[in-house]
Design brief:
- The protein is mainly alpha-helical.
- The chain has a domain of 42 residues.
- The longest helix has 37 residues.
- It is rod-shaped, with a radius of gyration of 35 Å.
- The mean pLDDT is 88.
Length: 96
């Protein structure tokens, strides 16, 4: 009788160990859950960054459409443009 109880407990222990192994390491187990949570956090952060870039680009577009001073500043700084009435003086540097 003691031997059959021992075998029964061993079978239950093996079954529970096998079940626990698949809960932790199996397909869609706890390890996969942690990986998916990590990936979700990364994607959520990336999405937030893209949304912020989108807002910034929208602001720039609105300024380019409606703010002539901003357009002039961009034309001068990034494109090196000057107005027709302006004169450009270029000085060469002397070596001393």
């Amino acid at each position: 009788m003691f031997q059959s109880n021992r075998i029964g407990l061993l079978c239950i222990f093996l079954f529970l160990s096998f079940f626990l192994f698949f809960i932790i390491c199996g397909d869609q187990g706890v390890l996969d859950l942690f990986e998916l949570q990590n990936e979700y956090q990364k994607l959520n952060l990336y999405s937030t960054e893209l949304e912020q870039k989108n807002v910034n680009l929208h602001r720039i577009i609105e300024r380019l459409k409606h703010d002539p001073e901003y357009v002039e500043r961009i034309a001068r700084t990034e494109l090196g443009m000057v107005q027709q009435t302006e004169k450009i003086f270029q000085f060469s540097r002397r070596k001393q």
